[in-house]
TrEMBL record:
GO terms for biological process: lipid metabolic process. Residues 60-204 form the Fungal lipase-type domain. This is Lipase. Gene3D superfamilies: alpha/beta hydrolase. It holds the Pfam family Lipase_3.
């Protein structure tokens, strides 16, 4: 697996962050004036942004994480449902299954009623792939989880069409069959930041599995492929000792910038 470059990390992190505001001006980030399609959920709220430029090979699918009370409640639907769309055959988190398979409200003149968020995303991405694009998928939280499933479906339909997957703060997705059958582990980077508790969800060992290469940003370093139990252990220790760390002189020295130059 190739490493994730700093500029790539910054690019996808910025896009994930900017996916949340209602308005996103894609031309500010190098995409064409007509190089954006939005995929909405059942309420007409944006969940997926698909971005591209005619003169660039890469199209980018950016997926929001949970951004409403309903979405957060769905993350607690920890039972599993069979995902069989687009040739897939494994069980995934019931909440993510629901997000993917909810009816998508039209946002474009080409959109039609009666198809799911999953189907509409695949439909738009398929047209870009058939025009010669390769696709990168990035998402935050549950957006990263459903992004992996969308990427797997596209790879099933169009082999070698996926350039990379980069997720931020992503929970685990599905059962061991999902882990075994997922085609893109060698192109998937799962970024975890410090003590992000969502990356340990669902808390059901052996029932839920992660995929890809984990990049753990912790104590000013990047740790690669740190096992989940080791991450959890270090996180618990950090939570316990953190109040005492503020007593260290290094903390006082680091905060010198609070004082004016005199």
């Amino acid at each position: 697996m190739k490493s994730l470059k700093r500029y790539q990390y910054e690019k996808y992190a910025v896009l994930c962050n900017l996916a949340y505001p209602r308005v996103f001006k894609q031309t500010r980030y190098g995409f064409d004036p007509n190089g954006q399609r939005i995929v909405a959920n059942r309420y007409g709220k944006t969940v997926v942004r698909i971005l591209w430029s005619k003169d660039k090979e890469e199209a980018v699918i950016v997926i929001k994480g949970s951004h409403s009370l309903t979405d957060w409640l769905l993350t607690f639907a920890m039972w599993q449902r069979h995902c069989k769309a687009f040739g897939l055959n494994y069980r995934i988190h019931a909440g993510f299954h629901y997000i993917l398979n909810q009816e998508s409200q039209p946002t474009h003149k080409k959109d039609r009623l009666g198809i799911s968020l999953f189907e509409r995303t695949i439909e738009i991405a398929s047209a870009l792939i058939e025009s010669g694009k390769r696709v990168t998928i990035t998402g935050h939280s549950s957006g990263g989880a459903i992004g992996c499933v969308i990427a797997d479906a596209l790879e099933q339909k169009y082999p070698k069409s996926i350039k990379r997957i980069v997720t931020f703060g992503q929970p685990a997705i599905g059962n061991h069959s999902f882990k075994r059958r997922f085609r893109l582990a060698h192109k998937t980077y799962r970024v975890c930041c410090d003590l992000d508790v969502v990356t340990f969800l669902p808390p059901l060992p052996l029932l839920y599995w992660h995929v890809g290469k984990v990049l753990w940003l912790y104590n000013g370093r990047i740790y690669e492929n740190t096992p989940t139990l080791v991450r959890l252990g270090r996180s618990l220790v950090s939570w316990i000792i953190r109040p005492f760390s503020y007593h260290l002189m290094s903390k006082y020295i680091r905060n010198k910038d609070f004082f004016d130059e005199r």
